[in-house]
């Protein structure tokens, strides 16, 4: 029997990159997975290419009520939620003296407020079954994995907004672990280092995303990319599949006694990209 057989998982930001690799791995091991992205067409294509049972929810999770709508779609379709991976996010980089209030707030919105709202939305669907199981004397573990970054744990020049949002995720994770451990809901985080995705690709005219009707430049300067690789003891950036492996562990039964932790998935890198 697959290790996640009959489990229901939500992976936000899962049409591309680490999110898609995570959704594929969860589905491969038996989970039913909701695929979410801003771009509905890309989300539909990704869902159709994943070998397993999937549904799609396209929408901007930073908008009021959208997180609740996403969770309700899962409940309407499958009746429960066992796993939540808060992965959705992007970057808006600038030195702090040139950063606008809007850019700072947008990073807080997607990287800390959205995970908070997603956790709140799944709360009744994870806590209430757990209360019944506790009364019956049984243990059923459910999983929440929040995605942070070494930018959030160590800071990174040019990313005061992103680093602040990702740091807040760590506080959210550790607090929820204290609140929800009694319900056998494992709450952990991963802190990614240099993983090859659109966010860490070289800046170019082609590497852009449309968010809220605005084209956002993704990627990092090539000089920083080469410096980043030199700071990784493994000697190279990670792949989305390697990043997803750590998330999968925290979603699996092997992590039932891992709680309130931040798992660094960095290839051994223990500094920020530039320090």
Can you characterise this structure?
Helices cover 43% and strands 17% of the residues. It is an alpha/beta fold and 275 residues long. It has a single domain, classed as NAD(P)-binding Rossmann-like Domain (Rossmann fold, 3-Layer(aba) Sandwich). The model has no long low-confidence stretch (mean pLDDT 91). It contains 8 helices and 9 strands. The longest helix is centred in the middle third of the chain and has 35 residues, at 101-135. It starts with 7 loop residues before the first strand and ends in a 10-residue tail after the last strand. The strands form 2 sheets. It has a 7-stranded parallel sheet with strand order 3-2-1-4-5-6-9, with helices on both faces. A two-stranded antiparallel ribbon has the order 7-8. It has helices spanning 17-28, 40-49, 66-78, 101-135, 150-154, 160-180, 222-230, 240-251, and strands spanning 8-11, 32-37, 54-58, 83-86, 142-149, 185-192, 208-211, 214-217, 262-265. α4 runs parallel beside α6 (160-180).
Report mean pLDDT, rounded to a whole number. Answer: 91
Radius of gyration: 18 Å
Overall spatial form:
globular
> What is the CATH architecture descriptor?
3-Layer(aba) Sandwich
The overall strand count is 9
Tell me the number of structural domains: 1
The main β sheet shows up as: 7 strands, parallel
Q: Could you give a quick summary of the protein structure above?
A:
The chain is 43% helix and 17% strand.
Topology record:
Blueprint: E1 8-11, H1 17-28, E2 32-37, H2 40-49, E3 54-58, H3 66-78, E4 83-86, H4 101-135, E5 142-149, H5 150-154, H6 160-180, E6 185-192, E7 208-211, E8 214-217, H7 222-230, H8 240-251, E9 262-265
Parallel strand pairs: 1-2, 1-4, 2-3, 4-5, 5-6, 6-9
Antiparallel strand pairs: 7-8
Helix pairs in contact: 1-8, 3-4, 4-6
């Amino acid at each position: 029997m697959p290790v996640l057989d009959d489990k229901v998982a939500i992976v936000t930001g899962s049409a591309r990159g680490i999110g898609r690799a995570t959704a594929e791995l969860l589905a491969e091991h038996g989970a039913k997975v909701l695929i979410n992205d801003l771009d509905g067409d890309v989300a539909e294509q990704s869902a159709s290419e994943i070998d397993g049972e999937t549904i799609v929810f396209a929408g901007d999770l930073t908008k009021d009520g959208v997180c609740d709508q996403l969770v309700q779609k899962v409940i309407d379709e499958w009746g429960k939620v066992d796993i939540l991976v808060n992965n959705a996010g992007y970057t808006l980089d600038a030195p702090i003296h040139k950063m606008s209030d809007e850019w700072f707030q947008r990073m807080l919105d997607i990287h800390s407020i959205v995970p908070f709202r997603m956790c709140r939305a799944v709360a009744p669907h994870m806590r209430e079954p757990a209360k019944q199981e506790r009364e019956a004397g049984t243990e059923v573990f459910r999983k929440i994995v929040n995605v942070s970054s070494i930018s959030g744990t160590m800071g990174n020049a040019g990313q005061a907004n992103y680093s602040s949002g990702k740091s807040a995720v760590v506080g959210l994770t550790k607090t929820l672990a204290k609140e929800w451990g009694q319900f056998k809901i494992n709450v952990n985080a991963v802190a990614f280092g240099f993983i090859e995705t659109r966010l860490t690709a070289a800046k170019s005219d082609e590497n852009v995303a449309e968010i809220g009707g605005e084209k956002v430049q993704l990627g990092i300067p090539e000089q920083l990319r080469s410096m980043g690789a030199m700071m990784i003891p493994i000697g190279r950036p990670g792949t989305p599949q390697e990043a997803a492996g750590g998330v999968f562990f925290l979603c699996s039964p092997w992590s039932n006694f891992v709680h309130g932790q931040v798992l660094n998935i960095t290839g051994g890198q223990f500094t920020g990209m530039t320090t």
